[in-house]
Amino acid sequence: MSVPNPPAAPSPQPVPPPMPFADASTSAPKKTNIVALVAMIVAIVGFIFACIPGALIVGWVLLPIAFVLSIVSLFLKGDRKWMGVVGLIVSIVGTIVGFVVFFAVIANAASEAFGDTETTVTQPVEEDAAPTVEEEPADAAEQGTRENPYPLGSQISSTDWTVVMNSHAADGATAVAEGNAFNEPAPAGSHYEIVNYTITYSGAESGTSMEVGVDVVTSAGNVINSFDSIVVLADEFGIDELYNGASATGSRAFLVPDGETVQIRVSPGMFADEVFVQP
């Protein structure tokens, strides 16, 4: 009796090869650091405005914003962080440039507002005096200094003001006593000296007499102004507002220590060069 053959085993099915894993770093698109891009653009625009005198305020608003955004962008994920670095550098440099432009604008405005600060002096000429030419020694001090002051009556001018020192009284006790009943006599060891002068305004807009500086410097080197002692003279120089061509004349009292002489120091304008006048 024959034994039947066992059924043949089914042939195995072919197994498909495994699919390769995709590299996430190569397949995913790179993300752009939007904050860095915005920071760079804002910094560049702010830098441009910071260089324009009439638009400085816009630059000063944009540059700090760009600086903050640049710092934030450096801590965020994303590519192209170099834009944040560029924004940071441009915002810092733009701020420095903005300050330079600002101070240049201020200096130019001050120069236009107060005019030329150069002081010129015209000395009085005696009608009967014959013109003489005198050679000054090589070591002579520049005229207008304490060592070589101008004489009374000199016309001291700047762009906006002209000052003429009319007179000087070494003994001003009578003028102070007659000026006001509440004036007190000079304390022991001191005396009043009176200076009378005229100012003329030649600027475009109005100016006040307080812009002209007049005080005295003692032989000991002390500076004395009229506000050191509160006295009122009959022709006291007040705070006058003057327009082009207008003049004002008045006197001021200075409390000077006994035994000292004085020279008058004059500044024809707030920023004008000062000169000395010999009483």
Automatic annotation (TrEMBL):
Transmembrane segments: 34-52, 57-76, 82-106
Keyword NADP attributed: no
InterPro entries referenced in this protein's UniProt entry, alphabetically: Immunoprotect_excell_Ig-like
Keyword annotations: Membrane, Signal, Transmembrane, Transmembrane helix
Compositional bias annotation for Acidic residues: 125-139
Keyword Protein transport: no
Biased composition (Pro residues): 1-20
Region named Disordered: 1-24, 117-151
Protein name as catalogued: DUF4352 domain-containing protein
Native source organism of the sequence: Microbacterium murale
